[in-house]
Structures are given as structure tokens and as C-alpha cells.
Design a protein that fits this description.
The chain is an alpha+beta fold. The protein contains one helix and five strands. The chain has a five-stranded antiparallel β-sheet with strand order 2-1-5-4-3, with helices on one face.
Length: 69
């Protein structure tokens, strides 16, 4: 199940964040921060699937991520 769709710029600023499951504002900000920290360190030539923390992250195009579990 998709929990959220997150799109970042290269500096970590969210350009789109759509949560399909309820998270309070603090939890949303924490998920956005953790997600960017996980994916910003990765090389461009690695797998598009990433298991991190509480959720699976799937990178499709550029910096668009789907958070699932």
C-alpha cells in the first residue's frame, strides 16, 4: 500500500508531499526529513528500491519517492 508520494529538489525542499495515510504534521516532517537523508547519500547507479526505517522507498524518476510498507 502506498503511504505517501514525496518529490524533492536537490536541496531537500519538498516540492510535492501527498500522504494517503493520516500522519500528524510532526510525523510528516520527520518522514520527509528521514527520506531525504536516506536517498541523498545514494549513488545514481544503485537499485531503485531502498528499505529504510519504517518503510520501503521506491525511487521512480529523479527525486520522486513512494513510501510503502
Amino acid at each position: 500500500m502506498i503511504k505517501a508520494i514525496l518529490v524533492f529538489n536537490n536541496h531537500g525542499k519538498p516540492r510535492l508531499s501527498k500522504f494517503y495515510q493520516y500522519f500528524n504534521e510532526d510525523m510528516q516532517q520527520q518522514i520527509i526529513k528521514e527520506t531525504f537523508q536516506l536517498v541523498s547519500k545514494r549513488d545514481d547507479n544503485v537499485c531503485n528500491f531502498l528499505e529504510g526505517g519504517r518503510y520501503w522507498l521506491i525511487q521512480f524518476i529523479g527525486h520522486e519517492f513512494f513510501c510503502t510498507n
